[in-house]
Amino acid sequence: MFLDRVEVHVQAGAGGPGAVSFRREKFIPMGGPDGGDGGRGGSVLAVAKAGLDTLSDYRYRHHFKAQSGTNGEGNERHGKKGEDLWLEVPPGTVVRELRSGRILADLMAEGDRTVLCAGGRGGRGNARFKGPTQRAPRIAERGEPGASGSFVLELRIVADVGLIGAPNAGKSSLLAALTRATPKVADYPFTTLHPELGMLDEGGGQALLADLPGLIEGAAEGRGLGHDFLRHVARTRLLLQVVDVGTEGAEEAERTIEQIRAELVAFDQELASRPRLVFLNKIDLTGAAQVAAEVGQWLEAKGVEHLSGSAASGQGLAELKAQLLRALSALPKAAPLQVEATPEVLATAFVVRQDEAGIRVIGKTVERRVAMTDMQNPEAVQRLANYLRRKGVERALASLGVARGAEVQVGEATLVWRPDLVIPRRRAGKAAPRHEDAAP
Ligand SMILES: Nc1nc2c(ncn2[C@@H]2O[C@H](COP(=O)(O)OP(=O)(O)OP(=O)(O)O)[C@@H](O)[C@H]2O)c(=O)[nH]1
Ligand SMILES: [Mg+2]
């Protein structure tokens, strides 16, 4: 079942409490403090996973909670980290804060990920409170509570080609003929109830095609089924308008072409300039070739690119495939939506992306913070590292398996990923085991 908008309520794990404990040795009744830190709570993250094309996993389950960290123990044993919880979503999922509706992240490409709620820091054990005046501290911290929040996940399909047209034009038939998808095809309007994807794979070229429900006059105002799905059109690079010239006369077909276009533009002005290719379909039917020729001339005069053929007989499809791939190769990839960060949501306002160009952290605030850091100053770099850790950037990177020494692009800057840099140093002189929950 297709589902393209869900609410989720998310709770990150709490940090475990630090321990109060003293070393016990023979003949020494009370040794020094040795209580370890609590483990960090698990975070809740969202990641775009290829192959998913609906949010239906979230139909019945809306509440998600990551594991808490466990208690620190004596002998400087630190608690275990809570496990992170991953919400897998289809590429093209936009994450919004429920209350404000603000966009936190646009997980457009496979593997894009963001932290929804960061796990709490583990409490420090008493071993860390030892000082010149306090030889036997009996205090330890409790763990920090995990962050919680409510979000809207909204799918906006990212496809290369959007198939649009009136009901019954043959959009689903064409998707089936061009790809391995098996959409429902039937001789009545509104057969397709939700977008369906198919991959066109031809001579080394690839394109993701989205078959959309039929559009009728008034769709932009909510008539028919099309309205809910018009926003999926918005993220396609090329529109393939399918027209039935087998059962419609030339004049009728021309009117339909205009009408569908008017609906798109009424929904989103920007779609007026979206590249468009018209496919005059059902040319196998009697008299259709004549109608196609007439409509073709009319389109020619308007400077609209067009082809004719038949989804049923396969006529003209090789040309259509070639033309689609050629047109796409000249078009830029769709850009992600702008993050609408505010002070309350800054913590989650970034996306980590890994592609041919490398690893990139995208997010206004994070980028600004990096740009403002004086990289020559070790203290400033340390502060930046702490910030990145607090905001969950470090976890998102670690979850990608980013190797030590790898380069990470943040805005204009290139950072060298060194996980140990972000761990604040312990008090000088004491060689304590390194632990991720250590804090100054
Ligand atoms: N003769 C002929 N029939 C076709 C062709 N393409 C589609 N059809 C028929 O037209 C009818 C509608 O086809 P669909 O592919 O379901 O049309 P659609 O545009 O997806 O329709 P909706 O999903 O309802 O908007 C079916 O009966 C198809 O068999 C074609 O090239 N030639
Ligand atoms: Mg259909």
Describe the structure.
With 440 residues, the chain is of the alpha/beta class. It folds into 2 domains: 5-156 and 336-422, Distorted Sandwich (Spo0b-associated Gtp-binding Protein, Chain: A); 161-329, P-loop containing nucleotide triphosphate hydrolases (Rossmann fold, 3-Layer(aba) Sandwich), CATH 3.40.50.300. It contains 8 helices and 18 strands. The chain has a 6-stranded mixed sheet, with helices on both faces. A 5-stranded mixed sheet has the order 3-1-8-5-6, with no helix packed on it. Strand 13, helix 4 (288-302) and strand 14 form a beta-alpha-beta unit. Helix 3 packs across helix 4 (288-302). The two termini are 50 Å apart. Mean pLDDT is 85; it is low at 341-347 and 421-440. Bound molecules: guanosine-5'-triphosphate and magnesium ion. Guanosine-5'-triphosphate binds at residues 165, 167-173, 185-187, 189-192, 213-214, 246, 281-282, 284-285, 310-312.
CATH class of the largest domain: Mainly Beta
Q: Widest sheet: strand order?
A: 10-11-9-12-13-14
| Low-pLDDT sequence parts | 341-347, 421-440
What's the architecture of the largest domain, going by CATH? Distorted Sandwich
CATH topology of the largest domain: Spo0b-associated Gtp-binding Protein, Chain: A
Query: Structural class from helices and strands?
Result: alpha/beta
Q: What is the β-strand count?
A: 18
| Beta fraction | 15-25%
Number of domains: 2
Number of helices: 8
Average pLDDT across residues? Answer: 85
Shape: elongated
Pattern of helices and strands: EEEEEEEEEHEEHEHEHEHEEHHHEE
What ions, cofactors and ligands are bound?
guanosine-5'-triphosphate, magnesium ion
Rounded to the nearest angstrom, the distance between the terminal CA atoms is: 50 Å
Cα-based radius of gyration, to the nearest Å: 28 Å
The level of helicity is: 10-25%
- What is the CATH homologous superfamily assignment of the largest domain? GTP1/OBG domain
Largest sheet: 6 strands, mixed
